[in-house]
Write a sequence for this structure.
């Protein structure tokens, strides 16, 4: 498929997406066992269950794996995601995303700029950007991204030291975000109604699905709440 068509197809899938799962990190040196082996055995099962329950997008966020190991994991996960119908995003590392053939890359405010990431990955790869304040939502690079994350809505151990932004920023994004936005940060089935009420129509979760005894059921519960609010509402 030509690159332009590939990018358009991925952006259409992104626009229709509601539920985004960040995989738990396997490369943390405090965890036991070989990280690549943990990823090879744990992530595919989690992905299958989560996608069957309604997850559209999954993200590999590995702060500790070397690039070559992460490329191997990402290639395997990209092949799986293509079979089960999900988009695969790599966090922070555009070169890894490009090498692995991932569908997208996600960058933070302190990482490589969206423009620089685009130069590396090309037009066919999705780029997401984290935002934590109104001025970041309004900044030019938010408009250059394909989607933005808005949060953390609630304090979360996956972002230590990052203060919660609450629902006010979600409300601001609902009226002002230049691209599709996903609310993120401490969200679960018990509080997702609050962010939907504030105008979010897409969310990112980690523990709400990854730590559940039945990831598929946990994803389905979240998806049912999301689908009750039309995207064009």
């Amino acid at each position: 498929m030509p690159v332009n068509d590939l990018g358009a197809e991925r952006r259409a899938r992104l626009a229709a997406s509601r539920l985004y799962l960040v995989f738990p990190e396997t490369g943390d040196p405090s965890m036991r066992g070989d990280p690549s082996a943990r990823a090879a055995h744990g992530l595919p099962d989690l992905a299958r269950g989560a996608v069957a329950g309604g997850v559209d997008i999954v993200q590999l966020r590995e702060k500790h794996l070397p690039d070559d190991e992460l490329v191997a994991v990402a290639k395997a996960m990209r092949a799986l995601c293509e079979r089960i119908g999900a988009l695969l995003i790599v966090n922070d590392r555009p070169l890894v995303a490009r090498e692995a053939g991932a569908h997208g890359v996600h960058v933070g405010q302190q990482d490589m700029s969206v423009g620089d990431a685009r130069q590396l990955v090309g037009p066919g790869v999705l780029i997401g950007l984290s935002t934590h304040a109104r001025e970041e939502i309004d900044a030019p690079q938010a408009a250059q991204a394909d989607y933005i994350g808005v949060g953390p809505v609630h304090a979360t151990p996956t972002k230590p030291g990052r203060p919660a932004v609450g629902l006010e920023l979600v409300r601001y994004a609902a009226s002002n975000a230049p691209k599709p936005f996903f609310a993120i940060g401490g969200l679960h089935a018990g509080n997702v109604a609050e962010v939907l009420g504030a105008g979010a129509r897409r969310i990112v979760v980690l523990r709400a699905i990854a730590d559940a005894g039945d990831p598929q059921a946990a994803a389905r519960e979240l998806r049912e709440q999301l689908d009750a609010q039309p995207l064009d509402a």
